[in-house]
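Minutes, project check-in

Agenda point 3 was the complex the collaborators sent over. CS summarized: two entities, 238 residues total, and the question is how they sit relative to each other. Sequences were read into the notes so everyone works from the same version.
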Amino acid sequence: MLSLNENLAREIRAHGAETYPHECCGALLGADAESGRQVRALFRLINRRVDSPRNRFSVTTEDVREAERSAQDAGLEVVGWYHSHPDHPAIPSEFDRENAWPWYSYIIVSVMKGRAQNIASCRLADDRMRFEPERITAGAAAELSR
Amino acid sequence: MAVKVLIPTPLRPFAGKRDTIELKARTVGEALGSLTAEFTELRKHLYTDDGRIRSFVNVYLNDEDIRFLEKENTPLKDGDTISIVPSIAGGR
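CS then shared the predicted structure for the full assembly.
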């Protein structure tokens, strides 16, 4: 279960709409609690894929380290990543799976014709064979998790 | 050579929940080999089925990417630190 409050969900959707028709990306800063994983802040990143930003995203190692430093400064850790799927559902692709790390939460926001739609989260199964859906909770965000 | 391997957060559940593993090895490749021999669940996250380091796995010796050194053949000396740093990528 992933706790994501309405403001943060709105921020992810806004980021996806801003960069449309390109994919947006960023880090989820938060913590794991007994009740589940909580996202407490976002760290926006620039999509470094200049060759195909409409259907791919990547960030540099330095971006990853910067996100980790930002999390540490706030007493948090990077618990996952988000990106958008322009004109595509919020369903992880095979490419997403091939590039995924275990443990992290991966949030995807669908952006259709420039308008952000639903948000979904998933985690890579330990055997790397599939993504497992992760339920999003907290206000309106819960309704967005499908 | 006695070296340290820093384990990134997403891989710690597969490395006995440890953030640092100390081991002895002569090269980076040997160190990663020892690491995955001890923690077998790590292997599929670090290597492809045909035994190559996955493209989204970055390995640094001290602060240098081993791709710009001698890759897995990069020699080690006592006190070196190997870091495994995630690359993050995806797309529809």
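Noted in discussion: The longest helix of chain B spans residues 28-38.
Follow-up: revisit at the next meeting once the mutant set is ready.
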